Structure prediction request, 158 residues.
Amino acid sequence: MSNLEVHSIGTVRNNQSGTYITLEKNFIPALQALEGFSHINVLWWFSDYDDEHSRSVLQTESPYKGSPEVMGIFATRSPMRPNPIALTAVEIIQTDFEKGIIQVSFMDAYDNTPVLDIKPYTPSLDRVETPGVPAWCSSWPKSTEESGSFNWAEVFNF
Prediction:
């Protein structure tokens, strides 16, 4: 196994007025030409699960109703994984290019979560027209837009 070094480029900020990605000052120039993109892919660190136990979990009892009883961690979106890296596609609400702040739609990240990278969402590279999913999750929303009004409490075992 090789060791890799990863550095945060900013943090997720959640407060009453919304969700924001605040970049470190030296990364603000990387926002140039982001105008016009409606969505970004945000790679972030499950920092609250960066410990020996969480990184050693390879299988788990199913968190989803109707799915197999035991699931490999790569078949879940659990924060417990060998490398606590997360990926979320989010809509850009507004960008302050001078201050390096991107307001985004909801992200499943806690306040002060480290952001590793941002990539523009481009349908030609990121969109799958007809994705295949197991039968147990085939009734889930087909887009992030639909997910906002979906009753996720009916899906999870907790």
Q: What stands out?
A: Residues 49-82+128-158 form one domain.
